[in-house]
Each structure stands twice: as C-alpha cells, then as structure tokens.
Amino acid sequence: MIPVRPQSTVSVIIPTCNGEETLGELFATLHRQTLQPMEVLVADSSSTDGTVDICKKNGAKVWSLSKNDFDHGGTRSFLTEQASGDILVFFTQDAILVTRDALELLVKPLLEKNSCACSYGRQLPRTDALWHAAFLREFNYPATSSVKTFSDRDRDGLRTIFISNSFAAYLKVPLLEVGCFKNGLIFGEDTCTVGRILQAGYTNTYVCEAAVYHSHNYSLAEEFRRSFDIGVLHSTEKWLLYTFGKAEGVGLKYFKSGAVQLAGKRQYLLILSFTVRTGLKLLGYKLGRMYKKLPLSVLPTLSMHSTWWHKNN
Fold first, then answer.
1. 265: containing domain
2. Average pLDDT, the chain
3. Phi-psi category of 237—alpha, beta or left, where left has phi over 0 and alpha has psi -120 to 50?
4. What is the pLDDT of residues 50-75, one digit of tens each?
5. N or C: which end of the chain has fewer CB within 10 A?
C-alpha cells in the first residue's frame, strides 16, 4: 500500500470544451475551498468561446488540442503525467462545488486510509433538473458513504466499480501503477480504471459529504445514445462484465425504485414517461452490445460520441 502524508499536494484536472457557461462558477467555488490545490491543469478541445481565457485568468495551466485529438482516457492520462501533486482531483467543466470543505472531504480517505486509492463525491441535481435527472442522481449518489473492495463484486456487481470523474480523486502512484486511463475507449475510462485499482488490492471510497451540483436534462434521444455507448463499452471491454457482473440488474433496480417513488406521489403520467425513457435506455444498451452486427454507417448516429467512430473505425 502507498502511504500518504497529511501534507500531500493536490492537483486539479479539468478537460474543457466550450465551457464558459459554468467554468466561472466552478473556479469561484474552487477558490473558496478550505483545501487549495497546488495547481489546476486544463486540456481544452478547441473551444470557440471564452473557456481558455477563463481558465488562464483563474491561474490554470492550459494545453490546447484539436477535437480529433481529444480522448476521454488518453487526455486524462496526459494531464496525469504533467501533474505534480500526490493526489489528482478530476472535474468536468460543469460541476460546481457545494460547500467550502468539499475538496478537503473528498481527499480525506486518501490521506487517512492506506488501502484507499480513489474516492468520489456526491452529485446533487442542479436547480433546473427535471425529475428523471434528479432521480438518477438520487439513485447513483445516496446519502450514505461507502467503501468498495474487489470482494464486493459478488454482492454489488458492476456497482462495485461505480465512480464519476465529474468529481473524483486518485492517488497518483497507484493510478500510474494500473496504467492510468485507457486510451481509445468510447467513454467509461474511469470505470475501467477503478476496476483495475480494485483488482490490485486497493479500495474505492464514496464520500457523500463531499458534493457538487451536476446533472443533465437528457432528451429521450440522448438517453438512448448514452446507453448505446455504455453497451459499446461493455462489448469492447468484456472483462468488466466477466469480472464484475452484468449491467441489466442495476437497470432493473433503477426502474423499480423510480416507479415506486412516482407511484407514491401518484405521478402516473411521469411513470409512463419514465417507462418509455427506461425502455429506450435498455434498447440503446442492447444495440450497443451488438454494435459489430450493425452497419458501420449508422453507428455514429446511434452514439453520443459520434467522432469516436470516425477515429476508431
């Protein structure tokens, strides 16, 4: 295990692309944190708005790259190699810290537990979140903290390796030890990395007290495309399902939980909408799992990450 001293340093990493709408608020909440990072590293994908200026004005070191060169895993691995901190905290550009001690609480398990190599915080819905977006956060980010080990896969399946790089922290040494983030994935690079981290004997901690505001009001088409991409990930990275179990069980639990909540509120029209939405997500996932049987020409239209298909096929 890797011992970490209380004086360990923190680097913040943010991939960006046209993020001026939220980055100012992210930096404002970051500057107010009780724990201040030693540096902020940004990889920007050819933003055409004020993203780069906002980042530089807030003291970030910025690398610019073309959208074709951006890779969910490869870009984060590049920034990891540039980082000087012992602890790396990853944000997405639209995550806003809720409290002044959120960053300090997030990294606390990495400082206090020798077995802990990564942690992630709670995501609360934004004020404009629709019911389905708010419920997804409630389902994925409960009000109770937890610690996951490799042995928990028999009980929790794929939930064992759940994490989100919208607000997550990693010890740099174990992260490099497992090969950092895999290049060339459609997305889900963080999930794959956590799987390898747990296999190596480390633990992953969910810190519910450390929170950000982060949610998306996905349309039905966007829900379908995102689920399609998850299916593609599980098809290309078959070891995830072989090692940690199938995804369908999580989806069924999600649907039952949401339907019960809506029935309790007598929101019957929302139940119908939720059923359709969940059905489209299941269809998207199933098609993603069998993407190799589909015509190559239609795959970009089914996917949320259409440029990935042009680069990797």
1. 220-307
2. 94
3. beta
4. 999 999 999 999 999 998 889 999 99
5. C
Long-range residue pairs from 140-144, CB within 8 A, at least 24 positions apart, any chain:
140/164, 141/206, 141/208, 142/208, 143/208, 144/208
Task: Specify the 3-state DSSP secondary structure of 66.
Answer: coil
Q: Specify the pTM.
A: 0.94
Instruction: Compute the distance between CA of residue 266 and CA of residue 83 in angstroms, rounded to an integer.
Output: 51
132 in Cβ contact with 186 (< 8 Å): no
- What is the maximum alpha-carbon separation in the chain? 54
Task: Determine, yes or no, domain membership for 312.
Answer: no
Residue 4 is predicted with a pLDDT of 44
Q: How far apart are CA 231 and CA 223, in angstroms?
A: 12
Residue 159 maps to a domain: yes
Residue where one domain finishes, among candidates 183, 213, 243: 213
Alpha helices in 16-101 (DSSP H): 20-31, 51-57, 72-82
By CB atoms closer than 10 A (0-12, 13-18, 19+), residue 79 is buried
Whether residue 155 is found in the same domain as residue 289 = no
